Fold these 4 entries.
Entry 1:
Amino acid sequence: MPLISGDKIRLKISELFVSLQGEGPAAGYPAFFVRLSGCNLSCCWCDTPHARQPETGQEMEMPKIINRFRKSGVSQVLITGGEPLLQEGVYALMEELLALGAQVFLETNGSLSLKRVPSEVTKVMDLKPPSSGMSKYMLYENLRYLSHRDQIKFVIADEEDYRWAKEKVLGLGLNYFTEVSFSPAWGLMSPEKLAKMILRDRLPVRLQLQLHKILKLP
């Protein structure tokens, strides 16, 4: 039985669907996606602009979300956005899903504290490079809440981004306590070029492509 009833908790939902996880530690696995509405950042290459404004979402009671998950036929849940940590109800949602035995993943933009995220949740946290226009909003104290099963993601749009990300990886020793991925910004950085730079520098990071886009999945 769930630990929390959540009957009165409502969340602004952009969309609910089942697809393959396109990125992150569980890339390629089927998952139930909970995309929450609203974001506090405005990255210039954002690929989910439809989820950026909270008013575009549909308010939904948590039991309805849980019921959709139960009917999904999968055991993994990816909570994403927008920025999911903007909504207070997301913490109860994560607890409820964990209580049901789900394997829960959280995608977050790196600007809000991870302190209250349950330790059982696998966290995929961005560090926004210069091309995003959002680098100054990164909350570096979040690094203390990451483990080896979590991931820091850099979206790389150009060589300046690559140099910035390389400096962060090596200067902060990120690869020693969590997984680090470099993902080419769709349509801006070629995967081949990014792969060659990683190999040239023997950088201890994972090249990660957006599998869902390649396969034309939601």
Note: The first strand starts at residue 10 and ends at 20.
Entry 2:
Amino acid sequence: MLTVDFDRLGLRPGDRVIDMGCGAGRHAFEMYRRGADVVAFDQDADELAGVLELFGAMKEAGEVPDGASADIKEGDALSLPFADGEFDRVVASEVLEHIHDDVTAIKELIRVLRPGGTMAITVPRWLPEVVNWRLSPDYHNAPGGHVRIYTDHELVDKVTKGGRPNDGTPGDAMVFEGKDHAHGLHTPYWWLKCAVGVDNDQHPLVKAYHQVLVWDIMRTPRLSTATRLAEKALNPVLGKSMVLYFRKPE
């Protein structure tokens, strides 16, 4: 279940890319399949171990082209252990809403992106997220949970200004290149979970809706066309994730 459109990001075989806050690795795996030189970065060692194992399985199964490479790196988003301009593409999907000092994290993402490189940042969309927070404090109060709700204007402003030094001297600013929304089918599901209890996975309506999402992810033939059309219609209005694309000036 991908959130980022890699064609829009401009990903090409041989690009060096970082998936910052990779989690279970869904975007890292797709970039590896497309022939990139991938670094899956996270602070969770257990998650990274699983990602590394699947990287190896993909290689053995012949799912990646010759020349593609992939590795993991554990560390802190506020101090990325990489050189300035090391990456051609940067992905940070569903990460910044968890980080208290998001401005520093954004500056680090910009620092490691080469001039001319592109970045995709995804966060929960404002309206679906506001409803979730109001329906259930447990949705965001869990350890490591969401600490803020972004509007598109706030996040665009933070990223486009993130390349400027704190001393006020001129510096490179990121260029905003566009916005998408994704996962429209997931918004009603989370509203339902928050209404009945975020941990109440055995509620009949939650179980039924979850099965529809599983069918969609697995592309079950008898439902995939209907769910694709439904999600395409819902994304502009209720897409749970907001996807922002940026370019670093040459």
Note: Strands lie at 16-20, 37-42, 69-74, 87-93, 113-124, 175-182, 241-247.
Entry 3:
Amino acid sequence: MTTYDSRPDTYAHITEVRGLLLAVAADLTRRAHAHDLSKLASPEVEVFDRVTPRLRELEYGSEAYKASLAEMGTALTHHYAHNDHHPEHHPDGVQGMTLIQVVEMLCDWMAATKRHATGDIRRSIDLNAARFGYGEELKTLLLNTVAELERGALRHADTDIEAFRR
């Protein structure tokens, strides 16, 4: 009777997971390079040139902020139509998004908070839960991811590999 050796099956599993993770990484890399490029050309650039300096001074979610967004009109409509990391791109909002799109959305939100004098990613996540209709599970997932990004998740990758080898 031969003894089962799990290593070939485990290597096959590792290879499958590696391939899927690399596909996610490739998509995120593509998104990183293409993020918001539509803002650099017409019909968006002219409106963003005019409105962005004012948005910096406004509190996110305030009535004045919402009025500035409304003023952006067709430029913002165009932006949402061409950038699927925005809930407004999808007929079902956040519920119509993929996890990869949500990651880009969160990174966008984190960067956007730095453009506002009163920017606070945790407050934005809370406000956006009401704005986009997502619940506590996604809110918690987003907050956990913010904490991980702030800690510098990539900084820990080498340590994790060394711990596995021990």
Note: The mean pLDDT is 93.
Entry 4:
Amino acid sequence: MARIAAVTPDQAGLMVKATYRYAARRFGSVPEPMAVFAHHPRLLMAFGLSETAVERASTVLPANIREIAVYRVAWTVGCSWCVDFGAMLQRLDDLDVERLEHIADYETSPLYSDDERAVIAYADAMTTTPMTVTDDQVADLQRRFGNKGVIELTYQIGVENQRARTNAALGITDQGFSTDSCRVPWAESTS
């Protein structure tokens, strides 16, 4: 259970209720980070607008490249919610989610392409403290994906670091998106 209880629909204002309806239609359930962020409706709105803008702007990289980098960040940080949601996004993009079980062995696993290995290593270098990104890594990624691709990848990894660290700090855990058995985040508090 999250360290801060989710805002239930009966506690929510009109804007938050509308946000919940949209999210439930889009994802099958209200994502718990949204329900926790609903305590601060203006930040919830900023979060939603930012996520929508990033999603619409991220058109350069193939889905498998973007999603595996984001997933690796979530896995590295230890955000079970982000891992769960990321696995669902990969499934919805018709990507091989079974290989995610082998993400720890990406360097030697035949389940990952050379491009995927390069972006996972970059995600690791950006996520570690202090960062260990090298000029050679960036140059390699430029050859693979161009400047726009490197910018998109870097931004996606940075955003996922923010998401994963925020959710982990708030104690938000997996919700069942990757298994299609979503629970309603406030159900436990009303039963």
Note: The two ends are 14 Å apart (CA to CA).
